[in-house]
Amino acid sequence: MLSTSHETKSPLSSDLDTAHFLVLRGRIAILRVQSVLVALSALCEQTGAMDYLEYFLTSTDNLKKIPHLILVTNSSDVKLAGLRAQDLKGAVLLYEYKVLGMPFRVFSTNDFNGSRAVIAPLAQRTKITAEVGHYLMERGAQVVMLSYAGSEEKICQECFIRAVEEDKKLWWTTQTREVGATIVLEKDVDETLAAMGKHTRRNLRYYRRKAEAELQCIFEGDIKNTLSKSELTELNQASTHPVSDVVIDRRYNTMKALEGLFCVGVKSPEGQWISLLGGRRHHGVSEIDWQMNRGGLEKYSVGTVIRSYLIEHEIEIGTERLFFEGGTPHSMRHAFISEKAVDIVVTNRSLFVSLLRRVAHWSIPRKNFLMQTLVDPALRWELH
Is the pLDDT of residue 6 over 60? Predict the structure, then answer.
């Protein structure tokens, strides 16, 4: 559907009077410019946003979709050959849904926090997001949802109105969400826990002491190279929330193959894993992707136990922040620093979109944020 290169007049401010786009489709093409995206992230003060591009492109969810990378360039002369970060105003990574293997013309950035979706200077992030949304709709998209890190919903609305000022066939809406999922790690455990509530501090200490006294559990802070596939599978089968074999395969294979991924664990004296936790490290940040806890040990709250060990361990190795991908139901979430994301959602006035909304109303997918947003009664839709 999307061309590989396009230029269009922009109704936005002078620095985007003419918007130039390069579009890459597919994982192989996108991964070829990863080094450029990493450099662009650093220039835009979003360091680390594209360090694990392959990891996210190959997630079990994203493998079901078609990835697209929209590059907003400084001029029409910019080519992929020899592309530099300095040649770009910004970049947007999003995914197109497929139905029966065919493109569905429904796009989403698929990043709840927006931190890896739109790479652009903060002052231009809203404008570039609005431009890309309009660009996709002009070229046949039925639904586009773009999320980016920020909090300027009013400016976002103004930018999108200007971006679509001549188009009377679109419905659109915006919203700002609290997406904080980061804990700042201080110089020691006591100072770090001081930012948490009294109940949370008590539990982190109490359940760790209880597990150490009654289970004689042992913490290991670096088991990426020693953990076996059979051990991971065994704990998953015995866990409180087992996942599919496909997910386990990916966790194990990516952990072994990709630099920067890590795994820590708590085990019994006999060597049986009680809890495992995995994630990614970069630039002083440890990002937590998954956790598995053995069932039947609820009175020990082993999920709290491993987090207590994790905080201590990360402080010891110099980590400055802990980020929990997708947030966490644990009470430590009350210590998250405030971070926000803005969503722009655009749809065509078409029978296709009407039917899609009806389907979403009949059965709202629990894990599909786009479909949930399309039928959210709290959102106000504008016509342009």
Answer: no
Nearest to 27 by CA among 68, 60, 61: 68
pTM over 0.85: yes
Distance in angstroms (rounded) separating the CA atoms of residues 102 and 68: 15
Mean pLDDT of the chain: 91
Give me 103's structure tokens.
Answer: 């493109």
Q: In whole angstroms, give the CA distance from residue 132 to residue 136.
A: 6
**Rounded Cα gap, residues 181 and 177, in angstroms:** 12
C-alpha to C-alpha distance for 259 and 132, rounded to whole angstroms: 32
Q: Residue 70 in 3-state DSSP?
A: strand
Q: Note the pLDDT of residue 382.
A: 84
pLDDT, tens digit, 9 for 90 and up, residues 130-171: 999 989 999 999 999 999 998 765 666 666 666 666 665 788
- 313-349 pLDDT, tens digit per residue, is 999 999 999 999 989 988 998 999 999 999 999 999 9
Burial of 42 from C-beta contacts in 10 A (0-12 / 13-18 / 19+): middle
> In the sheet that 321-324 helps form, which strands lie side by side, from edge to edge?
182-184, 321-324, 285-293, 273-282, 261-267, 218-220
pLDDT at 10: 42
Mean pLDDT confidence for 234-263: 97
Using CA atoms, how far residue 60 sits from 104, 125, 250, in Å, is 18, 28, 8
In 3D space, the residue among 141, 45, 35 whose CA is nearest the CA of residue 94 turns out to be 141
Say how far apart CA 250 and CA 281 lie, in whole Å: 18
Helices 302-316 and 198-214, packing angle to 10 deg? 100
- Cα 20 to Cα 41, 76, 84: the distances in Å are 19, 6, 15
- DSSP class of residue 201 equals H
SS3 state at 289: strand
What are the φ/ψ torsions at residue 99 (nearest 5 degrees)? -130, 120
What are the backbone angles phi and psi of residue 381, rounded to the nearest 5°?
Answer: -95, 135
Residue by residue, DSSP assigns 76-129 as: TT--STT--GGGEEEEEEEEEEEETTEEEEEEE---TT-TTTEES-HHHHHHHH
